[in-house]
User: Fold this.
Amino acid sequence: NASASQNSLNIFRLSGPASVAASETVAASYRIGSNRTVSYNSVTIIDFDTVVKDTHGATTTGSSWKFTAPVSGVYRISSRLESNAGVTVDSTSRGVRLDVYKNGSLFRAIDTNYDASGTSKAWVVRGSTQVSLLAGDYIDLRVYQDLDSGGSDIITFAAGVSQYVDVEKIGGTP
Assistant:
């Protein structure tokens, strides 16, 4: 239309249920509901498959387990894993490591448990760290183990409440 009084442009921002306020609590807590195994000399994403709490449904379970930040901020990741008893390390210093990956790349090792005693034991890795995430960034937790120079050891993290991951937004803009 050639008339200036009859032309207009209106722009609206519509907020739906997917919007998350910057001050809103964002938290997820998961545990292992079925045994998880990690083979020798491999890096394995741990599937924390049993939800305890997930305020925004931000977690994908399964072999590609991940937590996706629904809003930008600083997040604390805490986790604990304990293997089955009776895994014997050879006399060389070997062990288990728990890592946080951000957007598919190693971000930080949370804990490393090495031993050269040749004894049979359960392996525990635990700890926490902070990571800055933009909305849509994701993290996952992976375990690496090199317990036996023969390469035959498989460790198992049994189902239970002592095998967990907690993710919580603790601060504003990353």
Notes: DSSP finds no helices and 15 strands in the chain. The first strand starts at residue 27 and ends at 32. The CA atoms of residues 32 and 48 lie 5 Å apart.
